[in-house]
Design goal:
It contains three helices and seven strands. The strands form two sheets. The chain has a four-stranded mixed sheet, with helices on one face. Strands 1-3-2 form a three-stranded mixed sheet.
Length: 131
């Protein structure tokens, strides 16, 4: 038997803010999850994204503490259909009050690329093949 990646977990300091951010990226998350200690969204591929509040994590791991500031622990990357969509999604997220980290640019590896920080400071990459 070989383990297979089934889910990516995110620890949220503010569940409602975190879920609102990921809804802007197209994840289908029930509205009533905003006040829940745990939430899940299943992507079309079957991969799940899980959110837990800091309190939920501490309930079973009392030694858990928020990671130090600076650098990402996990990176999520969202493929866009075009370079223009990278720009549009970046603009929509930053207009909604989320912090841009790297403005859209034409990367030397052949992609339009940008990074926005989610409410917990995790870098979320947006990319599309350059055309």
């Amino acid at each position: 038997m070989t383990p297979r990646l089934d889910a990516i977990g995110i620890v949220a300091a503010d569940m409602a803010a975190s879920l609102a951010f990921y809804r802007l990226l197209g994840l289908d998350i029930p509205a009533d999850a905003d006040t829940a200690p745990h939430a899940e969204a299943t992507l079309p591929s079957g991969l799940r994204v899980l959110w837990d509040t800091e309190e939920t994590i501490r309930s079973f791991d009392p030694q858990w503490s928020r990671p130090e500031v600076g650098g990402d622990r996990v990176g999520l990357a969202f493929r866009c259909d075009s370079p223009a969509e990278v720009d549009a999604v970046y603009d929509a997220l930053t207009a909604a009050g989320h912090r841009g980290h790297l403005k859209p640019w034409d990367a030397f590896w052949g992609q339009r690329y940008a990074v926005v920080l989610d409410p917990d400071g995790c870098g979320i990459s947006l990319f599309a093949d350059a055309t």
